[in-house]
Amino acid sequence: MSSRFDVARFERLRAELGCGLGSPLTALAVTGSTNDDALAAARGGSRHGATFVADHQTNGRGRRGRAWIAEPGDGLLVSVVLRPELEPSRLGLLPLTIGLAVRAAVSELLPPELASTARVKWPNDVWASGKKIAGVLAESRLGATGTVVVAGVGINLWTQRFPPELEQSATSFARLGVAAERETLLAGVLKGLEMRLGSLSRGADEIVSELRQQDGLRGRRVRVDGMDGIASGIDSEGHLTLQLCNGDITQIHSGQVELLDS
Fold first, then answer.
1. CATH 2.30.30.100 is the classification of domain 221-259
2. CA distance linking residue 1 with residue 19, whole number of Å
């Protein structure tokens, strides 16, 4: 797909949902990185909810500096400026909170037989039918007025062919036989994120409970940066808990997860 993001349609959908996030909206045909655009705007004082969406990125990136590759118009590429009022202990849950909002929006657009396969994969992916359909990149900066977080989201919509290294691990709405539009998906993501940010500001319990329900790794054999074990959940600060072969439980603060079971 190569059509431009329809700003007027998105604004109608956002208004129907009563969503505060997504304004002001900057929609670009091409940019280097929506996260870089949002970070620059945040440094200039851009307010909570300012959103940057692009049809194409020339320097899109994911976690650990990996490139995010998508043909023009094939995916939803968006970054949102967030100025959350959160206790420091809850900041670690923010990337997963964004992931939960993305998962819910993805699930809403999938048919019933696939909706239940939408899961959050710690630390920053969303799965559908066992493969990555979306990624989250949250970048934070400490400014004079507090913490600023840029929530970057990439969702595969129309992609049919992935690079060889991603062919077996990635999917898209199109590959799942679903026609999804960026405007509808973005409005759903932002409304879900707004609701969950409100919940997280009041306490971690609701978010942690939702993570337990939507944790795609729980009970799976995994390897995290060379350490093998059974993923046993996500704790109240957003860490992955791993049961080692000797029965000990350890917390993983960050790392690359490799599945060891099928």
1. yes
2. 27
